[in-house]
Every structure is written in structure tokens, then in C-alpha cells.
Specification:
The protein has 230 residues and is of the alpha/beta class. A hairpin with a 2-residue loop joins strand 3 (42-47) and strand 4. It is globular, with a radius of gyration of 18 Å. The protein has one domain (2-223). It has helices spanning 14-21, 78-90, 96-108, 114-129, 147-158, 175-180, 208-215, 219-223, and strands at 2-6, 25-28, 42-47, 50-55, 135-137, 162-165, 184-187. The strands form two sheets. A five-stranded parallel β-sheet has the order 5-2-1-6-7. It has a two-stranded antiparallel sheet with strand order 3-4. Helix content is 35%, strand content 14%. It has eight helices and seven strands. Helix 2 (78-90) packs antiparallel against helix 3 (96-108).
Length: 230
């Protein structure tokens, strides 16, 4: 059984969902520390002037809380700003109307905790892509540890024999610890596809919404490397 373990990012990029497509179980790592200036509360969309961040403001706390304790700062009207940005930049994309109602309803709701928003979005984005990988939260498991130890313990707890990691974890994951535990550690080999976008030259590493609004039901095939010409 292949497991993916990752934090619940905001409107994640294509590579995030590529890993889920290749796994048998997705463990949402929701009880680790929130990281500033990462992707926990922001991601990028394409505009006529290049890309821009969509950032969910969070309440400044010290020490930084765990993700499932990170509160959204609703003093600004970020929900209206994000929905307006999606409408202005993707309103004329081929499949915007297919998903517009979901996003409009999402941004009309009041959200208190960042992880609740992100997990809600991720689950629904998986449905839009046609991904049926089972999902559980790490906070529901009886595990402890940091970095390699935590990943190994989660794999043991859920009965996985293989951990599919993103390449960014190569700097801190210790292969020998997986070997000792009888686990296989493999790294994602994701080649970013190109696909039809609006506004000039192709921009990689955008949020998954960029792909969905432009390619619709073909989005998962694009992630898998199929060239879509229609």
C-alpha cells in the first residue's frame, strides 16, 4: 500500500494531486506547525500580468500554532477578493462555469480555521478531478515524532509498506530509517505538463484551479501527461 502524507495546502498545485493519483491512501498532515510564507495559506493563479498570490490571512500567534489550530483573520474581506480574482482572471476560460458555483458558494461561507477550509477544498478538488483516494487526518491517528520518525510512524499506523514523498523532503528524510522499519521510500517524479492557458506564454506551477478552469474533465489526463488538443 502506497501512502502520501502532506499538509493541507490552499488550492494546491498540480504535483500535489499527481501524488494522490499514485497513492492508495492520503494522510492529511494537519497537526504539524503552520509555516509562514509557504503554501499552507496561499497559492498562485495566472493573470494578464503574470501570476499573483491568493493569500488567506491568518491570525498572528507566537509560537506558531499547529495547522489545525491556525485561525483565519477575517478582519479583511479576503473571501470576496479571492472570488473576484478568480472571476476576473478565469471568467472567460472554457470551463469556468462548470466549477463557478462551487467556488462562489465556498467563498460565501464563513471560515474560522485554515485547515477546515483547505481540507474542504482539497476533498472537493479531488472529486472534480475524479480522484477517489481515501483520505484521513494525521490528528486522528495515535502517532508522534518529527520528520523521518513521524513519516515512518504514520506509515506503520496505517499499514502502508511504501511512502511516496515529494522531492522537497530529500533534504531531511533518512532512507535508512525507512529500511529499518521495513518500509520503502520512493520519490515523486513529476514532469509538469503544458496545457492551454489564457494570457500569453505558459506559466507552470499554478494552483490546480488554473488547470481545471482551462481543461475541465480532461484535467486528470493532463496531470498524467496526456496532451490535450481539443
Amino acid at each position: 500500500m502506497i501512502v502520501v502524507i502532506h499538509q493541507p495546502d490552499y488550492l494546491p498545485w498540480l504535483g500535489f494531486f499527481d501524488r494522490l493519483d499514485k497513492s492508495d491512501l492520503f494522510v492529511i498532515l494537519d497537526d504539524v506547525q503552520f509555516i509562514k510564507r509557504g503554501y499552507h495559506n496561499r497559492n498562485r493563479i495566472k493573470t494578464p500580468k503574470g501570476w499573483q498570490w491568493l493569500t488567506v490571512p491568518v491570525v498572528n500567534e507566537f509560537p506558531l500554532p499547529k495547522l489545525n489550530r491556525t485561525r483565519i483573520d477575517n478582519n479583511s474581506n479576503w473571501r470576496k477578493q479571492h472570488w473576484t480574482a478568480l472571476r476576473l482572471n478565469y471568467g472567460r476560460s472554457p470551463f469556468f462555469n462548470k466549477y463557478a458555483d462551487f467556488f462562489e458558494e465556498t467563498y460565501e461561507r464563513n471560515w474560522g480555521m485554515l485547515s477546515e477550509l483547505n481540507i474542504y477544498l482539497i476533498r472537493n478538488l479531488m472529486d472534480m478531478l475524479g480522484l477517489n483516494t481515501p483520505v484521513i487526518k494525521s490528528s486522528s491517528l495515535n502517532v508522534a515524532g518529527r520528520k523521518t520518525e513521524l513519516m515512518v510512524n504514520i506509515c506503520k499506523e496505517v499499514g502502508a509498506d511504501t511512502y511516496l514523498s515529494g522531492t522537497g523532503a530529500k533534504d531531511y528524510l533518512i532512507d535508512e530509517e525507512f529500511d529499518k522499519a521495513g518500509l520503502k521510500l520512493i520519490y515523486q517524479n513529476f514532469i509538469h505538463p503544458t496545457y492551454r492557458q489564457r494570457f500569453g506564454d505558459f506559466q507552470p506551477y499554478m494552483s490546480i484551479v488554473d488547470l481545471l478552469f482551462n481543461c475541465g474533465d480532461n484535467s486528470l489526463e493532463v496531470i498524467r501527461g496526456k496532451v490535450i488538443t481539443e
